[in-house]
Design a protein that fits this description.
single chain, 10 helices, 48% helix, alpha+beta, extended, binds heme C, two-stranded antiparallel sheet, 2 domains
Length: 246
Protein backbone atom coordinates (compact mmCIF):
# COMPACT_ATOMS: atom_id res chain seq x y z
CA UNK A 1 0.00 0.00 0.00
CA UNK A 2 2.80 2.38 1.00
CA UNK A 3 4.55 1.66 -2.30
CA UNK A 4 1.37 2.39 -4.20
CA UNK A 5 1.00 5.79 -2.51
CA UNK A 6 4.63 6.67 -3.26
CA UNK A 7 4.14 5.66 -6.90
CA UNK A 8 0.98 7.78 -7.14
CA UNK A 9 2.72 10.82 -5.65
CA UNK A 10 5.60 10.45 -8.11
CA UNK A 11 3.14 10.11 -10.98
CA UNK A 12 1.36 13.39 -10.23
CA UNK A 13 4.48 15.40 -9.30
CA UNK A 14 5.26 16.69 -12.82
CA UNK A 15 1.69 18.00 -13.06
CA UNK A 16 2.04 19.85 -9.79
CA UNK A 17 5.29 21.41 -11.01
CA UNK A 18 3.51 22.96 -13.97
CA UNK A 19 0.61 24.13 -11.84
CA UNK A 20 3.00 25.91 -9.49
CA UNK A 21 4.75 27.84 -12.29
CA UNK A 22 3.45 31.40 -11.96
CA UNK A 23 0.05 32.66 -10.94
CA UNK A 24 -1.11 34.13 -14.23
CA UNK A 25 -3.91 32.28 -15.97
CA UNK A 26 -2.53 31.03 -19.29
CA UNK A 27 -4.67 31.31 -22.40
CA UNK A 28 -5.19 28.11 -24.38
CA UNK A 29 -3.14 28.20 -27.59
CA UNK A 30 -5.46 25.72 -29.38
CA UNK A 31 -2.95 25.09 -32.14
CA UNK A 32 -3.37 22.52 -34.90
CA UNK A 33 -0.04 21.17 -36.12
CA UNK A 34 -1.68 19.34 -39.01
CA UNK A 35 -2.89 22.65 -40.43
CA UNK A 36 -0.09 23.40 -42.91
CA UNK A 37 -1.49 26.81 -43.86
CA UNK A 38 -1.43 27.90 -40.22
CA UNK A 39 2.22 26.76 -39.94
CA UNK A 40 3.10 28.59 -43.16
CA UNK A 41 1.52 31.82 -41.93
CA UNK A 42 3.35 31.37 -38.62
CA UNK A 43 6.67 30.88 -40.44
CA UNK A 44 6.08 34.07 -42.41
CA UNK A 45 5.33 36.07 -39.26
CA UNK A 46 8.39 34.59 -37.57
CA UNK A 47 10.73 35.52 -40.41
CA UNK A 48 9.27 39.02 -40.79
CA UNK A 49 8.89 40.00 -37.15
CA UNK A 50 11.12 37.81 -34.95
CA UNK A 51 14.14 36.54 -36.87
CA UNK A 52 15.86 39.92 -36.69
CA UNK A 53 16.43 39.40 -32.95
CA UNK A 54 15.70 35.69 -32.24
CA UNK A 55 17.39 32.76 -33.96
CA UNK A 56 15.97 29.25 -34.28
CA UNK A 57 19.39 27.69 -34.62
CA UNK A 58 18.23 24.06 -34.81
CA UNK A 59 15.84 24.68 -37.71
CA UNK A 60 17.08 24.27 -41.27
CA UNK A 61 15.29 26.11 -44.07
CA UNK A 62 15.10 23.08 -46.37
CA UNK A 63 13.68 20.83 -43.63
CA UNK A 64 11.07 23.50 -42.91
CA UNK A 65 10.19 23.61 -46.62
CA UNK A 66 9.54 19.86 -46.70
CA UNK A 67 7.57 19.72 -43.45
CA UNK A 68 5.41 22.74 -44.26
CA UNK A 69 4.54 21.50 -47.74
CA UNK A 70 6.55 24.17 -49.61
CA UNK A 71 9.19 23.93 -52.31
CA UNK A 72 12.75 25.16 -51.67
CA UNK A 73 12.06 27.90 -54.25
CA UNK A 74 9.00 29.14 -52.33
CA UNK A 75 10.97 29.24 -49.10
CA UNK A 76 13.86 31.05 -50.76
CA UNK A 77 11.52 33.65 -52.25
CA UNK A 78 9.29 34.25 -49.22
CA UNK A 79 10.85 33.04 -46.01
CA UNK A 80 14.56 33.76 -46.32
CA UNK A 81 16.84 36.75 -46.36
CA UNK A 82 18.90 36.95 -49.54
CA UNK A 83 22.14 36.35 -47.63
CA UNK A 84 21.02 32.92 -46.34
CA UNK A 85 21.33 29.54 -48.08
CA UNK A 86 18.58 26.88 -48.17
CA UNK A 87 20.64 24.28 -46.24
CA UNK A 88 21.46 26.66 -43.39
CA UNK A 89 19.81 27.04 -40.00
CA UNK A 90 17.78 30.08 -38.93
CA UNK A 91 20.49 32.18 -37.35
CA UNK A 92 20.74 35.93 -36.76
CA UNK A 93 23.42 38.51 -37.35
CA UNK A 94 22.89 40.41 -34.09
CA UNK A 95 25.67 39.75 -31.55
CA UNK A 96 24.23 38.59 -28.20
CA UNK A 97 26.53 40.88 -26.21
CA UNK A 98 25.30 43.93 -28.08
CA UNK A 99 21.61 43.03 -27.79
CA UNK A 100 21.96 42.41 -24.04
CA UNK A 101 23.07 46.04 -23.75
CA UNK A 102 20.17 47.27 -25.90
CA UNK A 103 17.34 45.27 -24.31
CA UNK A 104 18.65 44.46 -20.81
CA UNK A 105 18.63 40.75 -21.76
CA UNK A 106 19.70 39.05 -25.00
CA UNK A 107 16.78 37.70 -27.07
CA UNK A 108 16.97 33.93 -26.45
CA UNK A 109 17.09 31.37 -29.28
CA UNK A 110 13.51 30.22 -29.85
CA UNK A 111 14.19 26.66 -31.15
CA UNK A 112 12.80 24.95 -28.06
CA UNK A 113 10.89 27.78 -26.37
CA UNK A 114 7.55 25.93 -26.57
CA UNK A 115 9.14 22.95 -24.86
CA UNK A 116 10.68 24.94 -22.02
CA UNK A 117 7.76 27.33 -21.47
CA UNK A 118 4.86 25.49 -23.12
CA UNK A 119 2.78 26.52 -26.14
CA UNK A 120 0.07 28.12 -23.98
CA UNK A 121 2.69 30.29 -22.28
CA UNK A 122 4.09 31.50 -25.62
CA UNK A 123 0.59 32.26 -26.92
CA UNK A 124 -0.29 34.16 -23.72
CA UNK A 125 3.03 36.05 -23.96
CA UNK A 126 2.37 37.13 -27.57
CA UNK A 127 -1.14 38.29 -26.71
CA UNK A 128 -0.09 39.74 -23.34
CA UNK A 129 1.69 42.99 -24.21
CA UNK A 130 0.09 46.08 -22.67
CA UNK A 131 0.85 49.76 -22.33
CA UNK A 132 3.12 50.66 -19.41
CA UNK A 133 4.85 54.03 -19.67
CA UNK A 134 7.30 53.19 -16.90
CA UNK A 135 9.02 50.59 -19.14
CA UNK A 136 11.82 51.50 -21.64
CA UNK A 137 9.73 50.42 -24.66
CA UNK A 138 6.44 51.63 -23.17
CA UNK A 139 5.01 48.11 -22.77
CA UNK A 140 4.87 45.39 -20.17
CA UNK A 141 3.71 41.78 -20.37
CA UNK A 142 1.20 39.73 -18.40
CA UNK A 143 3.26 36.52 -18.16
CA UNK A 144 6.80 37.95 -18.28
CA UNK A 145 6.77 40.95 -15.96
CA UNK A 146 9.15 43.73 -17.06
CA UNK A 147 10.04 41.88 -20.28
CA UNK A 148 12.91 43.48 -22.19
CA UNK A 149 11.23 42.86 -25.55
CA UNK A 150 9.39 45.66 -27.35
CA UNK A 151 5.86 44.88 -28.60
CA UNK A 152 7.07 44.11 -32.11
CA UNK A 153 3.57 43.19 -33.31
CA UNK A 154 2.01 46.48 -32.19
CA UNK A 155 1.49 47.48 -35.83
CA UNK A 156 -0.75 44.42 -36.22
CA UNK A 157 -2.45 44.32 -32.82
CA UNK A 158 -2.56 47.95 -31.76
CA UNK A 159 -1.93 48.85 -28.14
CA UNK A 160 -4.08 47.97 -25.16
CA UNK A 161 -4.20 49.37 -21.68
CA UNK A 162 -5.04 47.36 -18.57
CA UNK A 163 -8.25 47.88 -16.64
CA UNK A 164 -7.67 47.26 -12.95
CA UNK A 165 -9.93 46.05 -10.18
CA UNK A 166 -9.16 45.89 -6.49
CA UNK A 167 -9.32 42.63 -4.61
CA UNK A 168 -8.52 41.79 -1.00
CA UNK A 169 -5.17 39.97 -0.80
CA UNK A 170 -4.45 37.16 1.66
CA UNK A 171 -2.98 39.75 4.05
CA UNK A 172 -6.27 41.66 4.13
CA UNK A 173 -4.97 44.64 2.11
CA UNK A 174 -6.60 45.84 -1.08
CA UNK A 175 -4.58 44.96 -4.22
CA UNK A 176 -4.90 46.20 -7.77
CA UNK A 177 -5.05 43.35 -10.27
CA UNK A 178 -5.55 43.44 -14.04
CA UNK A 179 -9.17 42.68 -14.84
CA UNK A 180 -9.18 43.17 -18.61
CA UNK A 181 -7.89 45.41 -21.38
CA UNK A 182 -9.13 48.23 -23.55
CA UNK A 183 -7.48 49.30 -26.78
CA UNK A 184 -5.91 52.77 -26.86
CA UNK A 185 -4.75 52.49 -30.49
CA UNK A 186 -5.76 50.30 -33.37
CA UNK A 187 -3.51 48.02 -35.40
CA UNK A 188 -3.98 46.52 -38.86
CA UNK A 189 -5.82 43.52 -37.41
CA UNK A 190 -8.98 43.08 -35.38
CA UNK A 191 -8.51 41.46 -31.95
CA UNK A 192 -9.76 38.13 -33.34
CA UNK A 193 -7.41 38.32 -36.33
CA UNK A 194 -4.50 39.12 -34.02
CA UNK A 195 -5.31 36.13 -31.78
CA UNK A 196 -5.30 33.95 -34.89
CA UNK A 197 -1.92 35.36 -35.94
CA UNK A 198 -0.50 34.70 -32.45
CA UNK A 199 -1.90 31.15 -32.72
CA UNK A 200 -0.17 30.63 -36.12
CA UNK A 201 3.13 31.88 -34.67
CA UNK A 202 2.78 29.63 -31.63
CA UNK A 203 1.97 26.67 -33.90
CA UNK A 204 5.09 27.36 -35.95
CA UNK A 205 7.29 27.63 -32.83
CA UNK A 206 5.76 24.40 -31.48
CA UNK A 207 6.62 22.68 -34.76
CA UNK A 208 10.18 24.07 -34.58
CA UNK A 209 10.49 22.69 -31.03
CA UNK A 210 10.10 19.14 -32.37
CA UNK A 211 9.89 18.96 -36.16
CA UNK A 212 9.27 15.20 -36.13
CA UNK A 213 6.26 15.34 -33.81
CA UNK A 214 3.63 15.19 -36.53
CA UNK A 215 5.23 12.05 -37.98
CA UNK A 216 5.68 10.62 -34.51
CA UNK A 217 1.98 10.94 -33.67
CA UNK A 218 0.90 9.62 -37.05
CA UNK A 219 3.20 6.60 -36.83
CA UNK A 220 2.07 6.03 -33.23
CA UNK A 221 -1.56 5.62 -34.30
CA UNK A 222 -0.61 3.03 -36.94
CA UNK A 223 1.54 1.15 -34.43
CA UNK A 224 -1.39 0.97 -31.99
CA UNK A 225 -3.72 -0.22 -34.75
CA UNK A 226 -1.19 -2.86 -35.78
CA UNK A 227 -0.83 -4.08 -32.19
CA UNK A 228 -4.59 -4.32 -31.88
CA UNK A 229 -4.92 -6.44 -35.02
CA UNK A 230 -1.98 -8.58 -33.87
CA UNK A 231 -3.70 -9.08 -30.52
CA UNK A 232 -6.90 -10.35 -32.14
CA UNK A 233 -5.00 -12.73 -34.42
CA UNK A 234 -2.83 -14.02 -31.56
CA UNK A 235 -5.84 -14.54 -29.36
CA UNK A 236 -7.61 -16.78 -31.89
CA UNK A 237 -4.37 -18.57 -32.67
CA UNK A 238 -3.91 -19.34 -28.98
CA UNK A 239 -7.48 -20.63 -28.77
CA UNK A 240 -6.86 -22.86 -31.75
CA UNK A 241 -3.59 -24.28 -30.33
CA UNK A 242 -5.01 -25.05 -26.90
CA UNK A 243 -8.35 -26.39 -28.17
CA UNK A 244 -7.50 -30.08 -27.69
CA UNK A 245 -5.76 -29.69 -24.33
CA UNK A 246 -8.47 -27.89 -22.37
C1 LIG B 1 13.82 43.92 -31.18
C2 LIG B 1 14.25 42.62 -30.84
C3 LIG B 1 13.17 41.54 -30.68
C4 LIG B 1 12.26 41.14 -31.62
C5 LIG B 1 12.08 41.65 -33.04
C6 LIG B 1 11.50 40.06 -31.01
N1 LIG B 1 11.95 39.83 -29.73
FE1 LIG B 1 11.32 38.37 -28.47
N2 LIG B 1 12.60 39.01 -27.05
C7 LIG B 1 13.51 40.05 -27.19
C8 LIG B 1 14.25 40.20 -25.96
C9 LIG B 1 15.33 41.24 -25.70
C10 LIG B 1 13.76 39.21 -25.07
C11 LIG B 1 14.22 38.96 -23.64
C12 LIG B 1 13.23 39.58 -22.72
C13 LIG B 1 13.57 39.42 -21.27
O1 LIG B 1 14.03 38.36 -20.87
O2 LIG B 1 13.31 40.39 -20.54
C14 LIG B 1 12.72 38.49 -25.80
C15 LIG B 1 11.98 37.44 -25.25
C16 LIG B 1 11.09 36.66 -25.96
C17 LIG B 1 10.40 35.52 -25.42
C18 LIG B 1 10.47 35.03 -23.99
C19 LIG B 1 11.64 34.13 -23.80
C20 LIG B 1 11.72 33.67 -22.38
O3 LIG B 1 11.47 32.50 -22.16
O4 LIG B 1 12.04 34.48 -21.52
C21 LIG B 1 9.61 35.01 -26.42
C22 LIG B 1 8.68 33.80 -26.35
C23 LIG B 1 9.81 35.86 -27.56
N3 LIG B 1 10.72 36.85 -27.25
C24 LIG B 1 9.17 35.67 -28.77
C25 LIG B 1 9.28 36.54 -29.84
C26 LIG B 1 8.51 36.40 -31.06
C27 LIG B 1 7.53 35.27 -31.35
C28 LIG B 1 8.85 37.45 -31.85
C29 LIG B 1 8.28 37.80 -33.21
C30 LIG B 1 6.89 38.11 -33.21
C31 LIG B 1 9.86 38.24 -31.14
N4 LIG B 1 10.07 37.67 -29.91
C32 LIG B 1 10.48 39.38 -31.64
C33 LIG B 1 13.70 40.82 -28.33
C34 LIG B 1 12.97 40.72 -29.49
Amino acid sequence: MKKLIVALVIAVLPGLGVAAGGNVQLEKANIDLNNKESLQRGAKLFVNYCLSCHSAQYMRYNRMARDLGLTNKQVEANLMFASDKIGETMTIAMPAKQSAVWFGAPPPDLSVITRSRGSDWVYTYLTGFYKDDSRPFGVNNTVLANAGMPHVLEGLEGLKEPVYKSVKGSDGHEQQVIDGFKYVSKGKMSPAEYDAAARDLTAFLTYVGEPAQMTRKYVGIWVLLFLFVLFVVSYYLKKEYWKDIH
